[in-house]
Structure formats: structure tokens, C-alpha cells
# Entry
Amino acid sequence: MQHLAVAAYVRRLNPHIENHLLPVTFEELPPLGGFDTVFSMGVLYHRREPVAHLRNLKDRLDRGGELILETLIIEGNEPLYPPGRYARMRNVHAVPDLATLQRWFESAGFTETAVLDTNRTTIEEQRTTAWMTFESLASALDPLDPCRTIEGHPAPVRPSSRPESDQHAAVSRNSPGSPALSRAHHGIARHMRCLSGNSPHRAASGADLQSYRAFDGCSHHPSG
# Structure
């Protein structure tokens, strides 16, 4: 019913828009390519095989298309494997650091990762409302230290990046006025963007991968 409601709403906005919401899972879509844009939002860290997920995403893209990917990251030199929950989320299998995420993209066929922007997830953005009365971000953070989750991990932060591949290439830029990543270990890599086509390629620069810096006063906490 949800996909029918969204489709009906889109047609009311503009009857000439030919966007269709299909009630199928990602796994049910054949890897035939053809999509201009593919979204993977908050999925990668829930996958036991993240590289396979990235390969599957790339297989759905047409030349000239783009991947918009949102995922957790951790600052440092090795990934985090949470022994339990992270910010009260179940099934968080692996939170990569930037170097690990870069290797994942390369293994999946991508050749570049570049930072777009970063911002801290706040309780002003994710909060309980009259329309959503359940627990939200405030319940997942340490009440005495909002820079930590309730489990003692660093709190969520969002950087935005794009990876490239030989068939799905991206042009990277930094969004103007964007803050950098907090020193806190965990973050959400938002808008990992892949553009396909015959764009010229370049290697990911150190400035791209090191542009995550402290911006909100949270100190660098060791994970765990």
C-alpha cells in the first residue's frame, strides 16, 4: 500500500512525472544496470558482506548514473566490530575506518573516495515528535556525555563522500561551508556518490581522506 500511496502522490504533483515505486527488495532486482541513480541509505553496516553489497549496487548503475550511499564510519586505522549494539541499533556488523572503506570500494571496482561535507547528527534533527512518539537519538546517547552513545561508543557524525570506478566514475568536491568530521570515532558516511560514464579518473587524495577533523568540541575517545 505504501508504494501505491507514494506513486499516487507523485502523479498528483505532476501527472507527467514517470517515477514508479515498486514493492520489491533490492535482492529481487536483476543486476541489469540501467539506473541513473541508486540509493543505499543506512544499509552497508548492517551487511555481513559489505563489498558484495557495493558490487551489487554498482551492477545496477547505468553509465552516467550515480550511487548515493549512506553508512557508518569510524576514525582511525582499523574498523570497529561492535560486540553488541551501537546507538541501540541491532546488527551493526562492521563500522569501517576511511582506509578500510576505501579498500572496500576498490574491491567492488571503485577507484576514488572524496569527502563532500560533514555534520554531526543532533537531537534537533532526530527527535521525538507528536508524529513520532518512540525513542529517538537522545535515548541512544550518554545523558552525561552527548559525544558518546549509551554503549560508550563515540556518537554519530556524518561525512559525505563519493567513490569512483572505471565504469562508474565520480567528480568530487567539498560542499562550501561544511564542518569537518568530529574526532569522535563513529560517523555516518552520507552521500557516498558514484557517477558512471567515461569521466576522467583520479586517485583519491590525502586531503580528501584526511579532511575529517574536529569541529564540535567532542574529544577523541578510544572506542569501546
Notes: The two ends are 42 Å apart (CA to CA). The chain is about 20% helix and 25% strand.
